[in-house]
C-alpha cells in the first residue's frame, strides 16, 4: 500500500465512494477511508445509505407492501388466497442479502478502479495529511494527498431524556432489525424516516403512533400534497399526533413509558418499541485535528463555498456533513462535481433541482418551489393539477390515490416546482427534474407525447392544465 495519493476520501458513503470512483476514472491515484464494519467485522462500503438507511428501508417497505396487498387488495383483482403470514426473520434476512450484494458491488468497483481502501477512522491533519486508525485496533498510519475530500456523513439526532438502548428505544438502525412485529410502536418524528419505517411495521400488524412536535404535517412539502398525504396515512391507520412534544421516555418492565405534552397538557403513553426519528446531524466527531484549517458552521457542518471547497487549501467536503439537503443523490452528485473540479474540468450542481422523495404508499416526490414559497417570495405563478384517478393506468393498477401539481412562472411559463403524491412518484419526478434543469416550460411538457396508458400522463395533463387545456378533467 502507498501512503501518498492524488486524492484521499474520508467516508465511503454515497458521496464518498462515488467521488472516489470518479477520481479514479479521471486518472487520479485515489484512496478511501471508511470505518463501517459489517456483522463479520469486515469493511462495508456504502455508508449509512447502503448499510442501514435508504436501501434496507426500501427492501422492508417492498416486503411489507407485498404482504399488505395480499391481505387487503388482491381479492378485488379476483385473486383468492388462504391464510397469510409474515416471517419477520426471513424478511430481515432478505434485506441483509440485498445490502450485501450492493456493498459487495461497491467493493468490486473499487478494485476494478484500483482505489485503495483503508478500513478505519480517518482524521484530517494539517497539510492534507490523513491519520488512519485501523478498525482492528492496529497502529495508526498517516497518508498524504494533494487533495482530501471529507464525506463523513451524518448520524441520528438524539433528544434529551430519551436514551437509546438498542432494544426498546432505537434509532433507524434498530428499527431495521426487529426480530418480530411490535404490538405497539411509538415513533418520535413524522418526517421521512418516521413515516417510512412506521409504514413498514404498520403493514405488518403494529399499532403505530407518530409523535410530531411541529403543528404542521410535512411542513417541507407543498400544502396540497401534505393534506392528501395526511388523509391517506390516516386511512391506513397511522396515528399521527401533531403538536406533541416528547418530554422523556423510560423503559419499565419491558415497556417504554413516554411522557408527552400537547395542547391538553402532559400525559403518558406506553409502547413495546420506541423509534426516535427526529432528523440527522452532520457527523464530524474526531474528523478534524485542531490545526486542519477546516472551519465548522454554527450548526456543526463543515463550511464550504459554492464549489464545495473548505477553508483549507486542497480540502473539499460533500454530502450530509455540509449545507444543503441530506440526500444520498445530492451527496453523489457533489462527489462527482468535486472530482471533476480537482481534475481541472468544469462542474456544477444545482440545488434548486434536487428531487425529494418519501417512499410511503402512496409515494411523495417533489422538486423546486412549493406554492407557499412562491407566495412568500412574491413570484407570480400559474398552477396545473391532475388526479391519478383520471388516468387509465392508475385505475387499472388499483392505485387511484394521488395527484400531480405543477407550478409555472406566470409570465415566462418556466416550471418552478412540481409536486406529486401517488404510485411511482419517485420515478415520475425525474421528467420534471430534467425539464427544470434545462429551464423548460410547462408548455414543453404539455407538447411532449406521453405513452398511453401510463402514470406519466398525469404529469402531461397537469402541464396542460397550467393553461386550462387539460383533456381528461374539467378546466
TrEMBL record:
Annotated binding of NAD(+), by residue: 189-196, 212, 279
GO terms for biological process, alphabetical: 2-oxoglutarate metabolic process
Enzyme Commission numbers on file: 1.8.1.4
Domain (Pyridine nucleotide-disulphide oxidoreductase dimerisation) ranges: 354-463
GO cellular component terms given for this protein: cytoplasm
Disulfide-linked positions: 49-54
FAD/NAD(P)-binding domain segment(s): 5-335
Cofactor: FAD
Cofactor binding remark: Binds 1 FAD per subunit.
Keywords: Cytoplasm, Disulfide bond, FAD, Flavoprotein, NAD, Nucleotide-binding, Oxidoreductase, Redox-active center
SUPFAM superfamilies referenced in this protein's UniProt entry, alphabetically: FAD/NAD(P)-binding domain, FAD/NAD-linked reductases, dimerisation (C-terminal) domain
Protein name per the record: Dihydrolipoyl dehydrogenase
Taxonomic lineage: Bacteria, Pseudomonadati, Pseudomonadota, Gammaproteobacteria, Chromatiales
Amino acid at each position: 500500500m502507498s501512503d501518498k495519493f492524488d486524492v484521499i476520501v474520508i467516508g465511503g458513503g454515497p458521496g464518498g465512494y462515488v467521488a472516489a470512483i470518479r477520481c479514479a476514472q479521471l486518472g487520479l491515484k485515489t484512496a478511501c477511508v471508511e470505518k463501517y464494519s459489517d456483522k463479520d467485522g469486515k469493511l462495508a462500503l456504502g455508508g449509512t445509505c447502503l448499510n442501514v438507511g435508504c436501501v434496507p428501508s426500501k427492501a422492508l417497505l417492498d416486503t411489507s407492501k407485498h404482504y399488505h396487498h395480499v391481505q387487503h387488495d388482491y381479492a378485488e383483482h379476483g385473486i383468492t388466497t388462504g391464510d397469510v403470514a409474515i416471517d419477520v426473520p426471513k424478511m430481515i434476512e432478505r434485506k441483509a442479502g440485498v445490502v450485501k450484494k450492493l456493498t459487495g458491488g461497491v467493493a468490486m468497483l473499487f478494485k476494478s478502479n484500483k482505489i485503495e481502501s483503508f478500513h478505519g477512522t480517518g482524521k484530517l491533519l494539517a497539510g492534507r495529511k490523513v491519520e488512519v486508525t485501523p478498525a482492528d485496533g492496529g497502529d495508526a498510519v498517516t497518508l498524504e494527498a494533494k487533495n482530501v475530500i471529507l464525506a463523513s456523513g451524518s448520524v441520528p439526532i438524539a433528544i434529551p431524556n430519551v436514551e437509546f438502548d438498542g432494544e426498546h428505544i432505537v434509532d433507524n438502525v434498530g428499527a431495521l432489525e426487529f426480530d418480530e412485529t411490535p404490538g405497539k410502536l411509538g415513533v418520535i418524528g413524522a418526517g421521512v424516516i418516521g413515516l417510512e419505517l412506521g409504514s413498514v411495521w404498520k403493514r405488518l400488524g403494529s399499532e403505530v403512533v407518530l409523535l410530531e412536535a411541529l403543528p404542521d404535517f410535512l411542513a417541507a412539502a407543498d400544502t396540497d400534497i401534505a393534506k392528501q398525504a395526511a388523509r391517506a396515512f390516516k386511512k391506513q391507520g397511522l396515528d399521527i399526533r401533531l403538536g406533541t412534544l416528547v418530554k422523556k421516555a423510560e423503559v419499565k418492565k419491558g415497556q417504554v413509558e413516554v411522557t408527552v405534552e400537547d395542547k391538553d397538557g402532559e400525559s403518558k403513553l406506553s409502547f413495546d418499541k420506541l423509534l426516535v426519528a427526529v432528523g440527522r446531524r452532520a457527523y464530524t466527531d474526531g474528523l478534524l485535528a485542531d490545526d486542519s484549517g477546516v472551519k465548522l458552521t454554527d450548526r456543526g457542518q463543515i463550511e464550504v463555498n459554492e464549489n464545495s471547497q473548505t477553508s483549507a487549501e486542497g480540502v473539499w467536503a460533500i454530502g450530509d456533513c455540509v449545507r444543503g439537503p441530506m440526500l444520498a443523490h445530492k451527496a453523489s452528485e457533489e462527489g462527482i462535481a468535486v472530482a471533476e473540479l480537482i481534475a481541472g474540468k468544469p462542474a456544477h450542481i444545482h440545488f434548486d433541482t434536487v428531487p425529494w422523495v418519501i417512499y410511503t404508499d402512496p409515494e411523495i416526490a417533489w422538486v423546486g418551489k412549493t406554492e407557499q414559497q412562491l407566495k412568500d417570495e412574491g413570484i407570480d405563478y400559474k398552477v396545473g393539477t391532475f388526479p391519478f384517478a383520471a388516468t387509465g393506468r392508475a385505475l387499472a393498477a388499483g392505485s387511484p390515490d394521488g395527484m400531480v401539481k405543477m407550478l409555472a412562472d406566470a409570465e415566462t411559463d418556466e416550471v418552478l416546482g412540481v409536486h406529486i403524491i401517488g404510485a411511482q412518484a419517485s420515478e415520475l419526478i425525474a421528467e420534471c427534474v430534467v425539464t427544470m434543469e434545462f429551464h423548460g416550460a410547462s408548455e414543453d411538457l404539455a407538447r411532449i407525447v406521453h405513452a398511453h396508458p401510463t402514470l406519466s400522463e398525469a404529469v402531461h395533463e397537469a402541464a396542460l392544465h397550467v393553461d386550462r387545456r387539460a383533456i381528461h378533467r374539467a378546466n
